[in-house]
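Thread amino acids onto this structure.
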């Protein structure tokens, strides 16, 4: 994708940009479906995590290709409904799900509610008794052998509370990229089948499985097969559908030579444009084979020269990449174009990640409280 981009047209506005490729996005959807079907040996349905890339054109495209949506907040739920998503293909879950989000989910009959705590489940169960809703209720399962920080109930806690009650409609399990390997996933499915034997679930139940697949174009993911007897599995694909469908371009503001070994390149952008840096937490910095060009759009050859890439804040936490290959003659006015920037772009960056409710701002002038919230500036 990145090799065929018309640089001259895109850089003419002299502003950083994201570019998303619909053809690549559609190809990724088909690829992930194939990967998961081969691994689990059944047809699976996919649910895309809205927080990883809420750009409306991408969401509309995945809707057209029968991919469901996983949302994490009241704002994200309202956004998905406004975009015309069928509520039955919307699944709501996450630690940011408030009682208002639970109530709207049940009122609109979304496909499922994934509760990250017993408190959340009890809230949903209480509201569901008062409204007519077909929304399934599931709780998060967190095996002790999975390393992670996301909240969830262990097998022992779920068995103690729900064994033989059959009031759960599903189980919500997130593995994550750091733990996604054959032995771990196989053990996970074995544990779930033991829980099924305890009559933990209703007769028609679903496993909502988040494997935490990485960018499939970049990773050397071993596609293994899992033995299991589970009939209905919905896959939350996270970033894997969108990761390689886009790229990011930004002009270079300055090049500094603090040492003979490495340059420091500062771009007109930075972490304020992203939901995550250009670094893989497990494997460290990724060499993403960026393309460089001059101010007229002519490509420049990448050399053995190494540079740390910083955003315009120029502080340590705005380091996008500590060791990037750049042209020897890189200079102010050149451009950098980085692939695999389809997920966690501008619309998923701070403070829009998981669509949190933004705070109000008030000013007290001694007589009254004045609403000075940012979204009111245009009306002042």
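Threaded sequence (380 positions):
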């Amino acid at each position: 994708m990145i090799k065929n981009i018309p640089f001259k047209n895109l850089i003419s506005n002299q502003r950083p940009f994201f570019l998303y490729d619909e053809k690549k996005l559609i190809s990724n959807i088909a690829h992930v479906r194939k990967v998961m079907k081969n691994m689990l040996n059944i047809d699976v349905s996919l649910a895309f995590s809205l927080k990883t890339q809420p750009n409306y054109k991408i969401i509309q495209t995945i809707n057209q290709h029968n991919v469901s949506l996983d949302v994490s907040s009241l704002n994200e739920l309202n956004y998905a409904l406004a975009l015309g998503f069928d509520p039955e293909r919307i699944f709501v879950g996450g630690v940011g799900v408030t009682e208002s989000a639970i109530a709207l989910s049940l009122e609109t009959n979304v496909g499922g509610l994934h509760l990250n705590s017993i408190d959340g489940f009890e809230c949903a169960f209480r509201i569901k008794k008062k409204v007519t809703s077909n929304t399934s209720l599931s709780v998060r399962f967190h095996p002790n052998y999975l390393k992670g920080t996301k909240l969830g109930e262990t097998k022992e806690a779920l068995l103690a509370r729900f064994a033989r009650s059959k009031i759960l409609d599903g189980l919500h399990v997130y593995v994550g990229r750091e733990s996604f390997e054959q032995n771990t996933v196989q053990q996970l499915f074995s544990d779930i089948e033991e829980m099924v034997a305890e009559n933990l679930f209703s007769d028609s139940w679903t496993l909502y499985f988040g494997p935490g697949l990485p960018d499939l174009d970049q990773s050397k993911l071993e596609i293994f097969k899992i033995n299991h007897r589970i009939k209905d599995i919905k896959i939350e694909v996270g970033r894997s559908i969108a990761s390689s469908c886009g790229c990011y371009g930004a002009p270079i503001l300055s090049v500094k030579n603090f040492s003979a070994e490495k340059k420091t390149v500062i771009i007109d952008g930075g972490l304020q444009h992203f939901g995550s840096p250009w670094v893989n937490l497990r494997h460290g910095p990724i060499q993403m084979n960026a393309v460089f060009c001059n101010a007229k759009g002519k490509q420049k050859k990448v050399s053995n020269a190494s540079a740390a890439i910083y955003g315009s804040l120029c502080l340590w936490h705005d380091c996008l990449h500590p060791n990037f290959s750049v042209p020897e003659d890189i200079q102010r006015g050149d451009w950098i174009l980085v692939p695999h920037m389809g997920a966690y772009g501008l619309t998923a960056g701070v403070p829009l990640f998981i669509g949190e409710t933004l705070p109000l701002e008030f000013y007290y002038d001694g007589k009254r409280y004045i609403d000075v919230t940012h979204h009111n500036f245009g009306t002042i």
